[in-house]
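Quick log. Single chain, no ligands specified.
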Amino acid sequence: MEYVDPIKDIEKINAIKEKLKNHSQRDLLLFVLGINTGIRISDLLALKVGDVWDGEKVREFLYIKEDQEKAYYINRSVKSEIEIYLAKDDYKDEDFLFKSKKDLKPITRQQAYRIIHNAAKEVGVVEKVGTHTLRKTFGYHAYRKGIAISLLMSIYNHHSPAETLRYLGIDKNDEKLIKIDVNL
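-> predicted structure:
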């Protein structure tokens, strides 16, 4: 697998969201869910509607079974995109969330890569971008907003803070200020 980077520029993230919004609500949801949760692409593509929707509203947490079950918070941005996406069609709980237009299966990793890579390229992202970029973007911005490196280590199943910082593309000599935004 080739090394990819997080998208560090918020303006580029918003430009990608706008580009995807004009193309496909499904593709926008894939991007927004990925950058807001840090869930692996294989787990994202395996999601079913019932994983995020309880029949009446968007669930507060999304559960993924790895070695043990992990809970991922569905924030306002993700919740809004899920609501818009699910309102456009009549989905069943067992439908894949990122259903292919060709059949009832989810889109492939390769299709997810094309969606993310092409949108990033179209808005001028020069860093290497791939499906892992979603996960790295989540971690990079979570860390910059004050989320403890130990929590990110747990999400990524890393064994040291140095490994996680390297994964996120953060140089320990980087002097950027970290925002701890309680916002009560």
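The chain is about 50% helix and 5% strand.
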